[in-house]
């Protein structure tokens, strides 16, 4: 009898744990801004507010490129939005041209070398980025 109670208790605990995990997962996915497409490129930008920011950070593992945008204000770095983003492949062909709607942008790109340009308040910065088949390449753009 004790083994039966033990098994039932274990099964109930596992079910509750699974439901809790599913709830956390759906909450993270629910906080993610809508996925957008431009040509063959899929991307998402945002990260304003704690829920959306956490969802973006959690989703980064599913995207080959993660960009972060910040600007120095009053001696500290603040996250910024409305950043013009342009990505070109190794041959200089435009791959993505958009505006980041928050401090984070996640982009699905095939493996290769890219030039990423980000413009905030009229000031542009460029980064050469290598996207691999596995993992996430990261670049931070900070304006001073």
UniProtKB/TrEMBL annotation:
Gene3D superfamilies tied to this protein: Carboxypeptidase-like, regulatory domain
Protein name: Carboxypeptidase-like regulatory domain-containing protein
Signal sequence coordinates: 1-22
UniProt superkingdom: Bacteria
Keyword annotations of the record: Signal
InterPro entries: CarboxyPept-like_regulatory
């Amino acid at each position: 009898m004790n083994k039966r109670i033990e098994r039932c208790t274990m099964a109930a605990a596992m079910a509750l744990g699974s439901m809790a995990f599913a709830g956390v997962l759906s909450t993270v996915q629910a906080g993610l801004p809508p996925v957008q497409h431009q040509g063959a490129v899929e991307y998402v930008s945002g990260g304003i507010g704690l829920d959306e920011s956490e969802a973006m950070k959690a989703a980064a593992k599913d995207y080959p490129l993660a960009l972060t945008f910040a600007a120095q204000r009053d001696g500290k770095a603040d996250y910024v939005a409305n950043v013009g983003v342009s990505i070109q492949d190794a041959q200089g062909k435009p791959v993505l041209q958009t505006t980041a709607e928050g401090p984070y942008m996640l982009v699905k790109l095939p493996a290769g070398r890219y030039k990423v340009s980000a413009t905030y308040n009229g000031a542009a910065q460029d980064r050469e980025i290598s996207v691999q088949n596995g993992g996430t390449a990261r670049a931070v753009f900070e304006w001073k």
